[in-house]
C-alpha cells in the first residue's frame, strides 16, 4: 500500500477570543510538544487567519496510521489540554480526521464554492487584460534579446508571466474585492 495513503491527518480549527491569543499560543506549543511524544507522530503545521476580531488557528497533525491518531485523540493528555483551552475558544474544539492527504484540496464543509459561471466571469475579467498587456510589456525585452523572441520561448515567458500574476497577485485581489458578489446567496 502507498504510505501516503495510510497517513492519518487531524485538522483542528480553533477560533480564539482576541484577549486569549497569547495564552492560546503558549497552550498550542504545549499541545504540539505533547502530540510529538506519541507513537507515529509525523509533524504539525499551524496556520493563522484573522476572522473579524477572532484569530483562527488551523493545526494539521499527521500520524503514520489511523490507530496512532486515534490514540492521540483519546489520550488523557489531549483531553486535559483541550479542557484548559475551552474558555478561550469561540466555537469549541473543531476536529476533522482524514486518511491520506486529500484534505489539502477539499473545501471545508461549511464553505460553498461560488457558482461556476461566477468563476468564469472573474477569471475572464482577470485574464483578459493581462493577456493583452503582458505581451506588450515583453516586446522591449524581445527587441534587446532576440533569442527570447522565438515562438516557443516568447510564449513560454508570456504564459508564465500571466499565470504567476493571476495566481499570486490579481486573482487573490479580485476574489477579495468581489467576495460579497461571489458568496452572495442566489435566493
UniProtKB/TrEMBL annotation:
<dbReference type="Pfam" id="PF03992">
    <property type="entry name" value="ABM"/>
</dbReference>
<feature type="transmembrane region" description="Helical">
    <location>
        <begin position="120"/>
        <end position="138"/>
    </location>
</feature>
<feature type="transmembrane region" description="Helical">
    <location>
        <begin position="144"/>
        <end position="170"/>
    </location>
</feature>
<feature type="domain" description="ABM">
    <location>
        <begin position="9"/>
        <end position="77"/>
    </location>
</feature>
<dbReference type="InterPro" id="IPR038762">
    <property type="entry name" value="ABM_predict"/>
</dbReference>
<dbReference type="InterPro" id="IPR007138">
    <property type="entry name" value="ABM_dom"/>
</dbReference>
<keyword id="KW-1133">Transmembrane helix</keyword>
<protein>
    <recommendedName>
        <fullName>ABM domain-containing protein</fullName>
    </recommendedName>
</protein>
<keyword id="KW-0812">Transmembrane</keyword>
<dbReference type="InterPro" id="IPR011008">
    <property type="entry name" value="Dimeric_a/b-barrel"/>
</dbReference>
<keyword id="KW-0472">Membrane</keyword>
Amino acid at each position: 500500500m502507498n504510505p501516503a495513503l495510510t497517513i492519518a491527518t487531524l485538522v483542528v480549527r480553533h477560533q480564539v477570543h482576541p484577549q486569549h491569543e497569547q495564552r492560546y499560543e503558549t497552550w498550542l506549543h504545549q499541545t504540539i510538544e505533547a502530540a510529538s511524544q506519541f507513537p507515529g507522530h509525523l509533524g504539525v503545521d499551524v496556520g493563522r487567519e484573522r476572522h473579524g476580531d477572532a484569530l483562527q488557528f488551523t493545526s494539521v497533525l499527521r500520524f503514520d496510521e489511523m490507530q496512532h491518531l486515534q490514540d492521540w485523540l483519546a489520550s488523557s493528555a489531549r483531553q486535559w489540554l483541550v479542557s484548559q483551552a475551552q474558555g478561550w475558544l469561540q466555537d469549541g474544539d473543531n476536529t476533522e480526521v482524514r486518511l491520506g492527504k486529500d484534505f489539502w484540496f477539499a473545501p471545508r464543509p461549511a464553505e460553498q464554492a461560488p457558482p461556476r459561471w461566477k468563476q468564469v466571469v472573474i477569471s475572464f475579467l482577470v485574464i483578459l487584460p493581462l493577456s493583452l498587456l503582458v505581451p506588450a510589456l515583453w516586446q522591449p525585452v524581445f527587441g534587446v534579446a532576440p533569442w527570447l523572441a522565438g515562438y516557443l520561448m516568447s510564449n513560454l515567458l508570456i504564459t508564465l508571466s500571466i499565470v504567476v500574476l493571476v495566481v499570486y497577485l490579481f486573482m487573490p485581489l479580485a476574489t477579495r474585492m468581489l467576495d460579497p458578489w461571489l458568496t452572495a446567496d442566489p435566493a
